[in-house]
Amino acid sequence: MKKGLAIFLASFLLFGLLSGCSGNREEKAEKTKDGKVIVDFWTFWGSETRRPIIEKIIDDYNKSQDKVVVKHTFLPWGDIWTKNLASIAAGTPPDVIINDINTVSQRAENKQVEDLSKYVDDTYKDQFYPHLWDTVEYEGRPYAVPFNTDTRLLFYNKKAFKQAGLDPENPPATWDELEEYAKKLDRKTADRYERIGFYPLWGSIGASNWMMNADNGKGFIEEGKLAINTPKKAEALDWILSWKERLGDNTVQAFQAEFGSEQSNPFIAGKVAMWIDVGTFYTQLRDYGQDIEFGVAPIPAYQEGAGNWAEGGGFVAEIPKGAKNPKEAMHFIKYLTGSDAQRYWAMKNYDNVANMEAAQATVDQLEGKDKTVYEASVKNLEQTKMFPIPVEYPDYHSRINPLIDNALLGKISPERALEQAEKDVAKMKK
User: Fold this and answer.
1) pLDDT tens, 139-163?
2) What is the pLDDT of residue 263?
3) pTM
4) β-bridge partners, 314
5) Is 142 found in the same domain as 216?
6) How far is it, in rounded angstroms, from Cα 285 to Cα 292?
7) Is the pLDDT of residue 79 over 90?
């Protein structure tokens, strides 16, 4: 996601002015022979798993009414957003596109997306999680509709817990417990690790999540004010470094070199006993780790009562600026983000959908381990924070991440890295 987002944000300078000046060209809507309006829908869902799911939803929509036909166009991850901006600048955008949830305001500011307020009333937002709807509003108006989101959970190997003398029904709840459990779960032969209990940067989690977790859920920018250089965030970086120091840099690198996907995943292979990932990681466990007895829990809190904070991301459905069929596009978006389509997506992907009714209906419909994991991911949204990129600080991550990386490589102290990062971000304010 970060790579695609970086490409997307970098494209603003190239296409922002052009798209703002292109205007809305009056063109006749493309129609089928029997008079149905063709809505061009762009996604990056081309995998063997997700493409059939989205195309089933499209097929169901097309059969549900006789005025619109949605045509699905797949574009690779990363390429889709640069091509979208190019098409907006050229005046030939798609009608609907799946886009990043945390950058909606950027596109609204740059006039690259349509204002949807004319198509919805004040009650429309009530079907979506409030923290997701907040990300799609810019200056009080919606410019997209939330489609899905994610959250991070701790997956742990119950068999390994038993072997280490730990209660498999009581996962670590705090950072101190996480360290204590990890040391017990480490397995060595002489000086060689056969299994590592835990490492904080493995899985679908980065340093920013731990920094936010330690800082009582505060991100780098809170209500327009910078909160990068804080004592708790520096403490979190020191804490991450302590893990590498204990295990040894050579051990960390050796394990990472063996990491693969699916059945080669280190948690599935039994090489790591605790692993943080998004809820959809369960599909890998289901398909490739049938023999693993695992549990799932929130990310351990910095300390008791501090909150099990997790970062969230996700995607939205939006209408690019200058789309030929905005009315028909919005009709499809309402279907795509409605309860039935969202429930189908959730059931097939175990993905956190934006529609609250659909999410709860999925929990109620699932059984066994399927239900356990999905219910945990839905509940975890209560402690999941979204960090939309403010228009005042576009692409601020590009100023912060290199300094954090250098701190984690031992090239600069965490305190100095964060001090410099805050200064650099402050300079970019619009």
Assistant:
1) 999 999 999 999 999 999 999 999 9
2) 63
3) 0.90
4) 149
5) no
6) 8
7) yes
How many domains does the chain fold into?
2
Let me know whether 91 and 195 are in one domain.
Answer: no
Give the residue numbers spanning the domain of 242: 152-311+396-427
| 12 plus 124 within the same structural domain | yes
Supply the CATH number for residue 42's domain.
3.40.190.10
Give pLDDT, residue 51. 96
Kind of pairing between the strands at 152-157 and 274-278: antiparallel
Q: Which pLDDT score, from 0 to 100, does residue 20 have?
A: 44
Instruction: Note whether residue 183 is domain-resident.
Output: yes
Distance CA 287, CA 293 (A): 14
